[in-house]
Request: fold
Amino acid sequence: MASSPLVDRHGHDVHGGHASRRHPAHQFDTMEQQKESSTLGMWLFLVTEIMFFGGLFTAYLVYRTLYPAAFAAASSTLNVPLGALNTAVLICSSLTMALAIRSAQVNWRKGAMIFLVLTMALGSTFLVVKAFEYHDKFVEHHVPGHILNTPFHFVLEDAREASAIAKLDPDYQRHAEIFFSLYFIMTGVHATHMIIGLGILAVLLFYTRRGKYDSEYYNPLEMTGLYWHFVDIVWIFLFPLLYLLGAHLHG
Amino acid sequence: MKSTFPLFPDSASTLSGHVDALFIVWSLVSLFFTVLIAGLIVVLMSRYRRRYPEEVGADERAGIWLEILWSAVPLAIMLAMFTWGTKVFFELYRPPADAVEYTAIGKQWMWKVQHPEGQSEINALHIPVGQPVKIKLASEDVIHSFYIPAFRIKQDAVPGRYTSLWFNPTKPGVYHLFCAEYCGTEHSRMIGSVIVMEPRDYEIWMAGGTPGKSMVASGADLFTSLACVTCHRASPGVTQRGPSLEGVFGSQVKLADGRAVTADDNYVRESILNPLAKVVAGYDPVMPTFQGQVSEEQLTQLIAYVRSLGPTGAAPAGGTGGTPTAATNPSSAQMDATSPLVNAGNTTAGQTQGAAQKPPQK
Amino acid sequence: MDTTVARSPILPTPETSFERPNYLNAEYGWKSWLFTLDHKRIALLYLLSVTVFFGLGGIFAGLIRLELLTPEGDLMGPDTYNRVFTMHGIIMVFFFLIPAIPAVLGNFLVPLMIGAKDLAMPRLNLASWYVYNLGGIFTLWAIVNGGVDTGWTFYTPFSTTYSNTYVVPTALGIFITGFSTIFTALNFIVTIHRMRAPGLNWFRLPLFIWSTYATSLIIMLGTPVIAITILLVAAERVLGLGIFNPKLGGDPVLFEHMFWFYSHPAVYIMILPAMGVVSELIGHFARKKVFGYRVVAFASVAIAVLGFLVWGHHLFVAGESIYSATVFSVLSMLVAVPSAVKVFNWTATLYEGSISFQTPMLYALGFIGLFTIGGLTGVMVATLGIDPHVHDTYFIVAHFHYVMVGGTIMGYLGGIHYWWPKMTGRLYPGFLSKLSALLVFVGFNLTFFPQFILGYMGMPRRYWSYPPEFQVLNVLSTAGASVLAVGYTLPLCYFAWSFKYGKKSGDNPWGANSLEWDTPSPPPTENFYTTPVVTHGPYEYTREGVHNRTTQEANFG
Reply:
C-alpha cells in the first residue's frame, strides 16, 4: 500500500531542509550514508545510556553486597506479580514496536500506526502499574528521605521474619532505606526514559499518519525501536535485582 | 622551627627522608627530561629555522626503533620509580608492632586527639621523640584529612569508618598539623601543632597536664555500667552466656559459621554494634546491639579495655612474625580502612581482616 | 600530487576572496546566527560562550590570588573564599576546559578537515550549544545567588548534607551541560566514521581528527557517569536520601570512586584535543610530517583507553586499600607512556624541518615544555611514596595547572591563532600576538612554579588563610598571575579588533598543506565547491606545493 509523502510544489519535503523520502539532508551524499550515520549515532547514544544506568547499577552492587539481608527484606515488600506483569508488558511492547517497523518496511501504513499505538498503550500501561506501585510504597511509608511528610518507616509484618533480619543486620531499617532510595531513583530514571520514549512515539505516530515512512525510508522508526528495546532491556535487569532479591523470604 | 623563607619542609620522622629521597630523585629525572626537551627544542628551532618563505622540511623518516626506545626508556624509569615508591608507601602505611596508639577524631573544625593514657588535646599532639605512634582516625561529620608535612604523611578521616596512619618522630620540635581535605568554612583554621619532645620533657608534660582517666579505666567502667559483665564474666551458678574476653584480643576467634577471624579493633567494634554478624562458636546469638547507646569515644575506650585484657596462650595465625604482646595489634598493620558497618567480608576498600591473609611485615 | 580541488584557474586575491560569498556574509541578522545549522557559525557561537565563561573563571582566579597575597584572610571571609575557588574550578573545568577545543575548533574544523559539508547532525550541533548555555544559566544563577562552596569535587557528605549553598542548581547546570558535550562527541564520532571524503582513509587523517576522535570516545563513556553521580548528589540533598551519608548507611568513598571514574578521564578530554592542535601546529609550522604519525595517532587512542583505568590514584589516602593503590599507581605510570611518546615525536618532527616562529608555533612549543613538566609531576604524584605527602597540597594544584593551563589553554590559544585566518579571513597584529604568548608563558611559570615548592612544604589547598612562612611564594605566584592576566587579555582585545579591522589574510597565509586550507578563508557555507578527492596524507610538503598554495605569506611583522 504505497503512500505518497507530503511534498510542496517544488518537490521539497514540507518539513523543509531535512531529509525527505527522495533525497538526504544537505550534509549527506546518499540516503545510505544518512541511514548509516543515524544508526551509528543511535547506537553510540545507547552506549552513553548504558554508562548512565551503569553508575546506578554500580551503586546498587556496592550496597547490595554490603547489606544483603536488608536489601532482601526490602525487596520482599515489592509486588512481584505486578513487576512480572510489567516485564511482560514491556516485552510485548518491544514486539509491537518491531512489528510497527516491519509494517513500514512492507508499506503497511495502517499497520504501522496500529502497532505504534499498541506500543504506546503498553508503555502507558507500564507507567500506570508503576504509579500504583509507587502509591503502595507511599502508603506503606517506604518512600525514603524527608521530602514527604510521612517519614520513612520500614517494618516487616511477620515478627519472626523481622527478628531474623534484625539479628543479621541490626541497622536494617536504615539500609532498607538505601534500597528504596536506589529503587525509586533507578525506576524513576527508567520511567523518565519511558516517558520520553512515549513522546517520541507520539511524534512518530503523527508522521506515520501523514505517510512519511515507507519501505524506502523508515529509519526513524528503526532508531526509535532501538531506543525502546534498550529501555526494555534495562527493565529486564531492574526487575530481578529489585524485585526478586527477597523472593526466598516469603511466598 | 619556622624560618622566614623556607623552601623545604622539616624532615622529622624516620620515613620523611625516604620520601624526600624519592622526591629528589624524581625531581632530578624530571629536570633532566625537561632540560633535554627544552634544550632540543631550542637547538632544533635555531638550527632548522625557515630560511626562505617556500622552504619545506625534509621527508619523513619514520623510526620504529626510536619509538620503541623512547617508549621503553620512560616506561623502565617509571616502573623503577613505581617499585621504589610502592616500597616506601608500604612502609608509610604499615605501623610497627610497638606503635603506641592514639586516636584523632576530626570534626568541623577541630581535631580531638586522645592519648592512650587518657589525656586529650585539641588541635595539638604531644609525643615523645623516638616512639612510633599510630593514630587511629575517625570523623564525626565530613571527610577531613590528618596531615603532618614534617612527617610526610597524611590520611583522610572518613565518617563511618576508621582509618589510620603512623610515624616515628626523630627530631624534637613543633610541627604543623593541617586538615588537608576541604571540609567547610574553617577548613584552613583546622590546624594545630605536633609537639615532639625529649622523653624526659614528655614525662614532665604528661604529669603536669590534666591526666584524665585513662582509656582503659574508662572502658572498664563502661564494661560494668553497660552490663557487659552479665554475659562476659563467669558468675557462680550461671552459665556464662557470652565468651570470656580475657586473652581474646589479637587471637583467632572461631565463629559459629566455621570462619575464623582475628579479634582486632574492628572486630570488637562490630561485635558491640552488630553482634550477630560474627557469633562465636558455641554460643547462642543473644547479644543485644549497643548501636546508638555508645558514642565513638566510648567505643574506643571499650576497645582499649578489651585490648588491655590481653591475649594469653597461642600466638595469632602466621604472618605477623612476632609474639604478640599486650600492645600488639596485628591486623592494624595495614590501613584500617574497613567500614565497621560491614558484615560481609567485602568492602569498597578491599581490606581483608584475617591476619592469615596479610603478607609478612618487613 | 596535491589534493584535487576544483577551483577557479585564477587564484583569488585576498580582497575578492573576502567579498565572495562565505559563511560569514551568507546571511545576516540575529536569526541567521541563533538558528544556524552551519557548523562554522555554531563554532563561533561557542567561541563567544566559552570566552565569557573563561573570563568569569579568570576573575575568580584573580580573586583567589589576591586573597592569597596575605596569610590572613582580609579580602574576603572564609565562606566567600570557599565559594570563589569552587566557582573557579567548576567554571573552568566544566564550562571552559572540557568544551573549548572540541566545541570551537572541533566544530569548525572537523568537517573541513575531512572534506565534508557539515557535521553528521547539524541540528544536534545547534541543540548542543543551547544545552551548553542552559546549563550555564543554571550555574550562573547559582553564582549570582551566592554560589557553591563544596569545591568542584563535591565530596560527600559535605556537599549532600553540610553545605548551605546552591549545590542543586549548580549540579543541575553541570548535568545539563554534560549533555552538550555528549551530543558534540556523538556528532564527531559519526561524522569521522561516515563522512570522510573519497580517498581519505584513517591514516590520512590529520592528527587533530585522531585526537578529537579519541576525546569523543572518552566523552561518550565517561560523561554519563558524572551525570548520574551528580544527579544522585542532587537527589540526596533534595530528598534527604542517604546514599553517600554514613549516618544513614551510605558510603562517602563510593561517591569519590564514582566521581573520579569520570573526572580522571575528563582530564584526558581536556588535554587530548590540545595535543591534537599541537600536532597540527608542529607539523605545519615545521612543514614536515609529524614524526611517527601512526604512533601518535594510536597514542591518542591509548590515552583514551588507559585513562579509564587510573581513577583510583585520587583515592590513595582516602581509605583505599594499599593493594588497590598499587594497581592504580602502576596503571597511572602506564598512561604516561603514550603522552611521553608524543612529546618525543613532536620534538623529533622539528629535526630537519623548516621552522617558522609565528605565534601559533610559539604556543605549540610552549605547550611541549609546560606539558612535559606537568606530565612528569603527574607521574611523581602517581608514585605512591610521594602522594601521601603532596596530596591535597599546592603541589597538586601546580601539577594540574601545568597540564590544564600550560597544556590545554596554550593548545587552545595556539589553535585559535592558527585558524583565526581560516575562520575570519583576517590577520591579527604579529608583534602583539607574540608578546602575548611570551607574557602567557612567563606569567604562567611565575604563577605556578612557586606552587610546587609551596605544596612540598606542606601548604594544603583550598586554604583561605595560611601560616606566614608561605607568604613569599604566594606573593610570587600572585605576581605571576597578574602577568598571566595581561597575557590573556591582550588576545581578547586584538582578536575583537581583528574581526573588523584585521588585515585580510588570503586563503592560506601559512602555506599549510591540509584539507581545511584548500578552501577559501573564510570558507563558503558548503565548505568545498566540489567534494575533494584525497590522494595523500597531511603534512606532506613540497616546495612548489607551498608556492602554489600561499597567496600571501602571513606578514605579521
